[in-house]
Amino acid sequence: MSEIAARSGSGVNRAAEIVSALGSRLIVLVGMMGSGKSTVGRRLAARLHLAFVDADQEIEAAAGMSIPDIFATHGEPHFRDGEAKVIARLLDEGPRVLATGGGAVLREETRDRIRDRAVSIWLKADGDVILRRVKRRTERPLLQTADPAGTIDRLIAERGPLYELADIAILSRDVPHEKIVDECIDALHAYLLNRPAVGQAASRA
């Protein structure tokens, strides 16, 4: 067997082992806006042959309006109520990869449901990385401030202790997306099958 074929076969086996060990649980990605949850989530789901769901898209579909419009029309508390309901529903729909919004972990009931029904991965990104990724996007409601960089730093400080509750932490940085996906798979395999992790896991310190 060639080296390439061997690696491919190993990847298939690892994916199957991860999915088998998951059982009825989901894989839930948490982290700040711009940390790559949707992009990495789609690729991770494809590698594991699982469905991918973006919670923000589901929220918009349920509300019949965009998230910026929900914030503008009804305010953040109303949005968080809807977000919690949508995530609760998605967590009941079986194994898949679920990307959550950056503030989803603010609700205790959401954190509890994720803990009970999923394996969670925190994509940990530094403030400067996040700012570079989101600065060209004007639809982020929480960044409609005179100091987006300061807002990002504040949100990281406020939400960091909640993100740290995740089962796995992976450093999101400017490398090819497939490298981050590889590290997620290595960490999932280690977490679920109790083997040493391989890859650039993020420090929780």
What do these coordinates show?
Helix content is 57%, strand content 11%. It starts with a helix and ends in a 12-residue tail after the last helix. It contains nine helices and five strands. It is α/β, with parallel strands linked by helices and 205 residues long. The N terminus is likely disordered. Helix 3 crosses helix 5. It is globular and about 50 Å long. The chain has one domain: Rossmann fold (3-Layer(aba) Sandwich), CATH 3.40.50. A five-stranded parallel beta sheet has the order 2-3-1-4-5. The longest helix is centred in the first third of the chain and has 20 residues.
Short structural summary:
The protein is of the alpha/beta class. It has a single domain (3-193), classed as Rossmann fold (3-Layer(aba) Sandwich). 57% of the residues lie in helices and 11% in strands.
List the helices and strands and how they pair.
Elements: H1 3-22, E1 26-30, H2 37-48, E2 52-54, H3 55-63, H4 67-74, H5 76-91, E3 97-99, H6 108-117, E4 118-124, H7 127-134, H8 148-163, E5 168-171, H9 177-193
Parallel strand pairs: 1-3, 1-4, 2-3, 4-5
Helix pairs in contact: 1-9, 2-9, 3-5, 4-5, 5-6, 7-8
